[in-house]
Amino acid sequence: MQVTIGGVEAPLFYGDGGQVNAQVPYELAGVGAASLVVRGRGAAGAPATVTIAPAQPGIFTVSQTGTGQGVVLDAAGRLVDANNPARPGDVVVIYATGMGLTNPAAATGAAAPTEPLAHVTTSPTVTIGGQQATVEFAGLAPTFAGLYQINARVPAGVAAGSSVPLVITQNGIASNTVTIAVR
């Protein structure tokens, strides 16, 4: 199977049963729309036009549906959920996609560097329980291709609960709303 977007081959993360997950090539930065073509089993599908935005953040969820418990970990790498709630002042690690270009620039399909870290060029904001969190890092997760991480400090005064909403906003565009647990 092969996917091209704007004539550039897109690295595939998954493909099966009518679903294809591919990385939008960084080479298409600044392009507003491009043709997407999927090729497989010796044939090409009909081209589709896709919109390409500088950023369209999306937070990964445990259910893989885009809603509910976010893929948000504590400093020890444990899921921040009802069994392991965060406390105000804790740093949580949020995993996301669609956060755009980085500095230093990342190569499409390549593992992100560990030194120096690849920071996003457009800083996001994070709200937890409706309160703005301090973002300590936002960029590509080291050693992964196309996976972004945000390290954010849970703000003081966030109401405790097992389903506290968390949202990333970048370039004026809000992500999906996910939940974490806070005590």
Helix content percent band: under 10%
Radius of gyration computed on alpha carbons:
17 Å
Average pLDDT works out at: 96
Which series of helices and strands comes N to C?
A: EEEEEEEEEEEEEEEEEE
Strand content: 35-45%
Distance between the termini: 46 Å
Total count of strands: 18
Can you describe what's shown?
This protein is mainly β. It has no helices and 18 strands. The protein has strands at residues 2-5, 8-9, 12-16, 19-22, 33-40, 43-44, 48-51, 58-59, 72-73, 91-97, 102-103, 119-120, 125-128, 131-140, 148-153, 161-170, 173-174, 178-182. The strands form 4 sheets. Strands 8, 9, 10, 13, 14, 15, 16, 17 and 18 form a 9-stranded antiparallel sheet that branches. Strands 1, 2, 5, 6 and 7 form a 5-stranded antiparallel sheet that branches. Strand 5 and strand 6 form a beta hairpin. It starts with a strand and ends with a strand.
